[in-house]
From TrEMBL:
Biased composition (Basic and acidic residues): 93-105
Gene3D superfamilies reported in the protein's UniProt record: 6.20.400.10
Zinc finger (C3H1-type): 1-34
Any Gene Ontology CC annotation: cytosol
Molecular function GO labels: mRNA binding; zinc ion binding
PANTHER family (alphabetical): ZINC FINGER CCCH DOMAIN-CONTAINING PROTEIN 15, ZINC FINGER-CONTAINING PROTEIN P48ZNF
Limits of the C3H1-type domain: 1-34
Name of protein: C3H1-type domain-containing protein
Stretch list, region Disordered: 93-119
GO biological process: cytoplasmic translation
Amino acid sequence: IVCKFFIEAIETQKYGWFWECPNGEKCQYRHALPHGFVLKSQKKAMDDAAKANQITLEEFLEVERHKLGSTLTPVTPESFAVWKRIRMDKKQAEQDAAKKAKDTQHAAGKLSGMSGRDL
């Protein structure tokens, strides 16, 4: 276990040649940092550096939008309505096919029960 006074002296930069532990010679704790120990001040500096390197959501979206290129179809209310109608029709057709498959299995006696969703 590392001495709390030692860590405090390191963090406040008071540790040096003439620093003495307040516990004196009878201090039972170590006066050395373990391998990989990160001081609070260093951790704060690393966090600040990480935040500085992190891009905002708006910047990320702009970069990704520019990566798409210029061969895209612009979205208008009319084109969106067409896309939405096609998507809903496709979804309805898939649901109808799944229901028909379940009905055929049920008619053949292979389906033993109903799920909660079917109920």
